[in-house]
Design brief:
Length: 350
């Protein structure tokens, strides 16, 4: 079994020790007030809840089983990009709600489908999702946990809590600083790995704020693509339902419903800055988007790319969190039952 903790090991150990200390103090106070003959039941419940907390700490250590114990470090990376870092830069602005993608679907539905298809193209890579609109952040830190990533992508949507002028505040390159930091971190953490960047958006065609650009170091990106969604005619931006009717965003400056159209010139400029090609997406197969980058063998003069134990493994954190959840639910049930029993006698006396 191997571990990839989400925090320094010393921090996790300190949390475990603190947890046990707090729980020991709680046990002492409960035993002092417990009558003879009930010690065993109290200790069992205390042990179960304490174990639940320790299981969560253990899950934070991200335990896993290596696929090829003792050999993973020495064998070359296989087809499937075992040593690739793939970054999805996703425009989650309200423009993604516009339903001018294939078959009248929203742009975000196309983005979700394409991200899932790209994940399938690189089954053993590490993935990260960077989201942006007027500002940017990391939605999914770099990880090879595809099992959890796919459900997350399935629920990816445009931002919901936004101001009325949200579409006018989008910055097409708001993710520049976050992406640059993440690329630098991935290169340092995973030696000899290659970074691929896929940018998904509509180009902030209706934005009225000053636009910036991407400034990424040369050679930091080995490949990728900029994917554009929407049509030149554009469409209205749904806000929600009011009294059973679908309401759209309103352009107060021009006193009409706000229209969002794709800005392909802006997207092509982003592609040039990142050094990757541009593709307009219309529900066609993802194959043409996949870059012709050799991720299974080193380029001449490069250090050989090799698989690693951190990649060739099966995640087990879900097992420990599941056990912790079962123990916590058991304690919740017992607590509610005691609460109910204690209230019934009081009602009878009243």
């Amino acid at each position: 079994m191997t571990f990839q903790p989400i925090a320094p090991v010393a921090v996790l150990i300190a949390i475990a020790i603190l947890l046990v200390g707090i729980r020991m103090a709680a046990l002492y106070r409960v035993l002092v007030r417990t009558g003879t003959g009930r010690y065993r039941r109290v200790v069992l419940r205390w042990s179960a809840l304490t174990a639940a907390g320790l299981l969560l700490v253990l899950a934070a250590g991200r335990p896993g089983l290596p696929h090829d114990t003792g050999q993973a470090n020495a064998k070359p990376a296989k087809t499937g990009a075992a040593n690739a870092n793939i970054f999805f830069v996703v425009d989650r602005s309200v423009d993604g709600r516009v339903e001018d993608y294939a078959d009248g679907k929203s742009r975000l539905s196309g983005i979700r489908s394409d991200i899932t298809a790209l994940i399938d193209q690189y089954p053993r890579a590490r993935f990260s999702i960077i989201e942006f609109a007027s500002k940017a952040g990391v939605d999914w830190p770099l990880s090879d946990d595809v099992w959890s990533l796919k459900p997350f992508v399935k629920g990816l949507s445009a931002y919901t809590e936004v101001p009325e002028d949200a579409m006018y505040q989008v910055n097409i390159a708001a993710a520049n600083d976050v992406l640059r930091t993440q690329l630098d971190s991935a290169t340092k953490q995973y030696k000899d790995s290659k970074n691929l960047v896929f940018y998904f958006g509509e180009g902030a065609g209706g934005s009225r704020t000053a636009q910036s650009g991407f400034d990424i170091a040369h050679g930091a990106i080995a490949g990728g693509a900029v994917l554009g969604y929407g049509t030149p005619a554009g469409g209205l931006i749904p806000m929600g339902f009011y009294n059973g009717n679908l309401v759209y965003m309103w352009d107060k400056q021009n006193n009409r419903a706000a229209n969002s159209a794709i800005n392909e010139d802006g997207l092509k400029a982003i592609a040039a800055e990142l050094g990757v090609p541009y593709f307009h997406r219309d529900n066609s197969p993802i194959t043409p988007v996949v870059p012709a980058v050799d991720l299974s063998s080193p380029a001449p003069g490069d250090t050989p790319v090799s698989g690693s134990v951190s990649v060739e493994r099966t995640e087990l954190y879900w097992l420990f969190t599941g056990l912790a959840a079962v123990l916590a639910l058991g304690e919740t049930f017992l607590t509610l039952r005691e609460f109910r029993r204690n209230r019934i006698p009081r009602r009878v006396r009243q």
